[in-house]
Amino acid sequence: MPQSGEHHPAFEEYCECIYELREDDVEVIQARIADRLQVSRPSVSEMVRRLEGDGLIVLADNVISLTEAGERLALRVVRRHRLAERFLTDVLGLSWAQAHHEAGKWEHVMSDDVEAAMNRLLGDPTTCPHGNPIPGSSYLAEETVRLVDVTPGHRFTVTRIPEELEFAPGVLDFLESSALQPGRSGTIASSNADGSVTVDIEGHHVSVAPFTSARILVTAA
Question: What is the pTM of this model?
Fold first, then answer.
């Protein structure tokens, strides 16, 4: 069995994707992987066969699960990606979208020593800039609800921007420019039957589309 650090970046990317789909409560089937990674379904089918042969996943009733080895690999890559995002935003001042893109490269080349040094510099953070937990940290989950479920007139504090939104074109730029960021608080101004909501947050009056409002996680007052 290959040891940590000996896997091809494509194997790492697929295990990371499977982990994050599961984290977002999305059923892990080949079509979802193809959508998330923007690759063809035949390409996914071929990679799934390779991952299964390498002992990183199991396939049962068309649902894909990580093995113990696959889980270890995914946790390592996700940890490095989220640490890199935190470093790129907090230290280098990159935008959310830029940091997400660059971290996708760093996660495959970061050594154990660089990972440890980055973690020390950042003060052992528990989440990435979007509020998603960093594996291996002391993260404690909060009780959250979806933004769309908060009643108009009530206050909320943004807690998490799930990975699904990080991959949606333009959404990270929109959320950052609208102050819809973890730790920021606002009020639901109105909600509509289609699931869209309007919020007042940090001086912004923002309309949030149904796809986004159904995925942002908040704590509600």
Answer: 0.92
